[in-house]
Design goal:
With 198 residues, the protein is of the alpha+beta class. It has helices at residues 2-29, 85-96, 110-117, 169-179; strands at residues 33-35, 41-48, 52-65, 70-81, 101-107, 122-132, 135-147, 153-162, 187-197. The chain has two domains: 1-30; 32-197, Lipocalin, CATH 2.40.128. Strands 1, 2, 3, 4, 5, 6, 7, 8 and 9 form a nine-stranded antiparallel beta sheet that branches. Helix 2 packs antiparallel against helix 4 (169-179).
């Protein structure tokens, strides 16, 4: 009877750590690529008075692509850089103070992800879900996927977003008034280059 108890305890001793090891390995496998936070940026272009266009940049808080092609990004809107300090402060106060983070999620089609991982440069429409200011929208965006010389995955693309659909209209109007402008368009062209480290 004592031998049986010792055998059961011995099995528990080895099985529990082995299970934890499998869980840890799965966790590592689920993060095939990590976003390079130092170099990844989103470019957004604002249009003032229907003619003046200025490009600003926003950085990420986190980002990854899993081994199955699941994309998860967190955009830190507080990092918006317009190269004018007072404008940065106004945007943070009137646009992003209540909801400073936005998320982007997508599932890369298996055949597309497989080709990209194999080193083939491709361009495909990808269904993306964007959540910002408490509003969620899903749209298709044409993206280019390729491997760079280091073997890392690079995702790039362009889109146009009407920020009024995310509830930013009143804040944009406040910024227009403070700057003494005739207009600030809520249609915002967006471009991105996202390097993911293997």
């Amino acid at each position: 009877m004592m031998k049986q108890r010792l055998l059961v305890r011995a099995k528990q001793f080895f099985v529990i750590p082995f299970g934890c090891l499998l869980w840890s390995a799965q966790g590592l496998a689920d993060s095939a690529y990590q976003l390079d936070l130092k170099t990844a940026v989103i470019g957004v272009t604002s249009t003032k008075n229907d003619l003046i266009k200025e490009r600003h940049e926003i950085k990420f808080k986190s980002g990854s692509v899993s081994s199955t092609g699941e994309v998860a990004l967190v955009v830190d809107l507080r990092t918006t850089e317009t190269n004018i300090p007072i404008r940065n402060e106004r945007m943070l106060q009137h646009l992003f103070s209540q909801s400073p983070l936005a998320t982007v999620s997508a599932q890369l089609p298996p055949e597309v992800f497989a080709k990209a991982r194999a080193g083939k440069a491709i361009s495909e429409p990808v269904v993306v879900t964007l959540v910002a200011n408490g509003v969620s929208q899903t749209r298709s965006i044409e993206m280019a996927l390729a491997r760079d010389a280091m073997g890392d995955l690079v995702v790039s693309g362009q889109a146009e977003i009407d920020v009024s659909e995310f509830g930013y209209g009143p804040g944009i109007e406040t910024l227009r008034s403070l700057a003494g402008l005739l207009s600030i368009s809520t249609l915002v062209p967006v471009d991105f280059v996202l390097p993911f480290n293997d």
